[in-house]
Amino acid sequence: MAEVTVTDSMTGTGGDEPIAVTDATTATDGPEPIAVTGIACRLPGAPDPSAFWQLLREGRDAIGAPAVDRHPAPDGNERAGGWLDRVDGFDAAFFGVSPREALAMDPQQRLALELGWEALEDAGIAPDSVGGTPAGVYVGAISDDYATLLRRGGPQGITRHMFTGTQRGVIANRLSYSLGLRGPSMTVDCGQSSSLVAVHLAAESLRRGESNLVLAGGVHLNLVPESTVAVERFGGLSPDARCFTFDARANGFVRGEGGALVVLKPLTRALADGDRVYCVIHGSAVNHDGAGEGLAVPNADAQHEVIDAALAAAGVRPGAVQYVELHGTGTPVGDPIEAAALGAAFGTGPDRPVPLAVGSAKTNVGHLEGAAGVVGLVKTALSLHHRELPASLNFETPNPAIPLDALNLRVQTTNGPWPQEDRPLLAGVSAFGVGGTNAHVVLGEAPTLTTTTDAPTGQASGPVPLVVSAGSTAALAAYGGRLAERLEADAELHLPRVAHALVTSRALLPHRAVVVAEDRDRAIDGLRALAEGTPHPQVITSTGPVTASGRGPVFVFPGQGSQWAGMGADLYTTSPVFRD
Fold this sequence. Notes:
Blueprint: E1 2-5, E2 18-22, E3 34-42, H1 49-57, E4 63-64, E5 81-82, H2 99-104, H3 107-122, E6 135-140, H4 145-151, H5 162-165, H6 169-179, E7 185-188, H7 194-208, E8 213-220, H8 225-234, E9 258-266, H9 267-272, E10 279-288, H10 300-314, E11 323-325, H11 334-346, E12 356-359, H12 362-365, H13 372-386, H14 404-407, E13 409-411, E14 426-432, E15 437-444, E16 448-451, E17 464-470, H15 473-489, H16 495-504, E18 511-517, H17 520-532, E19 539-543, H18 567-574, H19 576-579
Parallel strand pairs: 6-7, 6-8, 11-12, 11-14, 12-13
Antiparallel strand pairs: 1-2, 2-16, 3-9, 3-10, 4-5, 8-9, 10-15, 14-15, 17-18, 18-19
Helix pairs in contact: 1-13, 3-6, 7-13, 10-11, 15-17
């Protein structure tokens, strides 16, 4: 049991009362755990983490016919996959990008910008508040389909914006530039393990102290049919357009696209800041297959070694790990090798009382290649957060080359609790690159917090202002509608907490509205009116430049009569903002 002093992020009260933190790991002398405090994702059939978790819990796959906005296959064979809707849509003005430059930007850059903004908001951080800080960005990406599209127009179609718009390295740099971040910024390309390696590098950057906050993950889009044809002729695609992970039908993978970014902070700082913690990263490791049977043939010994190295870095016993999110492509060569490595690494002795549960998100959304590792990490983080393991799909008959009982492995085929809920929840996530770069990350549940202070009830004692802002009138209306839906769907969201979050964890943008309400129903009515553009007595709107804190005059209208006597003098004494 350890104690830390924290600031209550909801009330803004000081750090005078200790909060007891129950250590939810079996780590011994491992490094500083890294907290996952924010998640954003855009995946097939799942535009956000909540939708992704619902898709996982319902056991759905999001594989279907090609998106209508994609170029047709030259051979007429339109291959199924996991697709995003409208990857050509982008609010360039919101991110300060000119229309001409936006046309030359790889949509993977656009996607990274959107995910970075959303991940920070999910972490309770206003995106416009991190500029100038040593925050880092590590993004895994391996494809450049958009450059292929642009170059089809010949030399006459090349513009000056294509130089930065089509470089993979700029995917991370663009996000750092947009947010004004001063920490490390790099796009990681080491094959299909890229995004998990990006998370590993991000955690190390935090532990070294060169970053105080990191956005890490990966993006991947399938924009031209030639890249799919190349994977097919390599022998990687399943003719059934499904990943049959560890199943006897394993015959390749189906391609998916999208991306995810997570916000990472040292755990001690996250607890001190009062952050919600999805899970913690206890340790990770990266290695290479070395010389083997072939460049693209996995090496079981190397995979075993990278798992051992990650467990050692985390200070975690192999037998304590209850679940592993597989690389799990569903290939007849890769699956047996991965299974053998897992059996060797996690053991079959008395230290493992129940078989190791395994599964793969690729059975739901396809193989996101450069972003595949972080998709597995997000799935596992949500599973730890909700204390539930979703099913891995498409498993009926075990691959005869994978002796599950002998290896002490079990494919998670149903939704259910973790194998041993009475023990600290620990999981591994694997990702392997076609060229031999392997990565493994050890995750654990968030610490259990108990506070000696009285928790706020969250009930309003009077009118509460809900401040919403956006980059345009249309976006403001849409924001009002989404917030109304959220209040209707979640009775646990109390107005004071929502109001606090809106002014502390959201950027203040030029188009603004305030909905003043005393209860949930009035708040929803006002937000609905804002969404519909109809006048409402509780809704006040404003448009114009936002004055930076501490600049420009502040006018105080003290009203009339003795009820305001001494107000200015009192505020000068008690309010640093007023005094400044």
